Amino acid sequence: MSRPEREAHTLAGPYAMDAISEPDRVRFERHLAGCDECRREVAGLREATARLAAATAASPPPALKERVMAAAAATRQQPPLAEPPAASRSWPAFRSWLASRPGLASRPWSARRRFRVRLALAAGAAVVTGAAVLFGVSNGSMQDQLSRDQASSQQVAAVLTARDATMRTGAVRGGGTVTIVMSHSRRELVFTAADLRSLPAAWGYELWLAGPGGDRPVIMLPAARHGMAGPVVAAGLRPGDHLVLTAEPSGGASRPTTPMMIDVVL
Amino acid sequence: MPGTALAELIRQVARGDADAFDAVYDQVAATVFGIVRRVIRDPAQSEEVTQDVLLEVWLSAARFDPGRGSAAAWVTTLAHRRAVDRVRSVQKEADRERRVAAAVIPYDEVAEAVESSLERERVRRCLGSLTELQRESVTLAYYGGYTYSQVASLLGVPDGTIKTRMRDALIRLRDCLGVSA
User: Fold this and answer.
1) CB interface of A with B, residues 36-65, below 8 Å
2) pLDDT tens, B81-110?
3) Per the structure, how many domains does chain B have?
4) B70–A47: do the CB atoms touch at under 8 Å?
5) Are B139 and B83 found together in one domain?
6) SS3 readout for A22-46
7) Are both B40 and B123 inside the same structural domain?
8) Could you report the predicted ipTM of this complex, rounded to two decimals?
9) Is residue A103 domain-resident?
10) Whether residue A201 has pLDDT greater than 70
């Protein structure tokens, strides 16, 4: 064992306890990659630290479980697996959690009537950038796609678990159901749709934010899996926005060109 | 499902099994919350980080490799690293000063809310079998979230000494706790 290797080896203890700076961690992990014995040793030390952790066990507040389960149900796992994640299963789980969550009452809207819920934004709040933050299938590289998926998973979870999250469900003209969970404080919402009617080839569903400042495209919904499209996140909500769904050519349109299938006042 | 081994449950979670995840939550939530709160101290932040950790278990279950350690160690490593990242990135100096005092206590105070008092007692006893320097190194690093060089300066000992003591201490703990590597 060379001198630098021997030195690196002494980091096994600090490494197993995360008691290490970032540069040291990188250095030690490089060392680990070429040292079977070190990996075994670290594994053994980690079993000891696991016991140190177990000795501090304390029950978290019960509400935490609901939040975690809901976030998991609405979050795609990584990386891609041989079998697709059970979206058909997590969707009902998500819905039933939402339906049961106190303070997050489900409020259906009718096709004609609009609910008015004002965005709780302070007057004069900084106007967010015009383009909504997008997530979805695009032409990016696989790596891009993976990192976007992860970013979005976290974004979805953040909205679902926001303290001021409110949920609404409603029917889509033409068929299907939509669920929106919105956080005013984050100015974001999570959108999912179930059982939307299938569209002709080269057409897709496009989500819009329509407000006093004009219509902004949010995203073309990704193709439905197990009947469920989404979840997708719309960010940068502004006071007075409506959420609109239309059918558009798959490339996306710059403004809605077909009748609105939902029109929800946020 | 309560009796199913954690590793098997995590394998099922990797395939998107929500029921298995429910069972995993029941098995690990207290450990995750306990260690996260021990490191972070602040209850609200601890809840946040606990939630992130448990969601990460769901997200990255497919990355758990039973050949590289137990499922419990995988989960607690995720939890501890997240907690440490949080204190290193957000805690102000003043908070850290307060936590120094708190971090030194755990050896005597490892018991808080008694959940698994037997495990707690065993760990306390094994910590007690370490030399004072080993014990302080481990408690400051693991429960306090400090790097080895921070621990070294807190204890007024050279970096190299602390690195070695930490490794020795964990080896002794591992043997004392009867952990099979």
Assistant:
1) 39-41, 43-61, 64-65
2) 999 998 887 654 445 555 554 444 443 344
3) 2
4) yes
5) no
6) HHHHHHHHHHHHCCHHHHHHHHHHH
7) no
8) 0.87
9) yes
10) yes
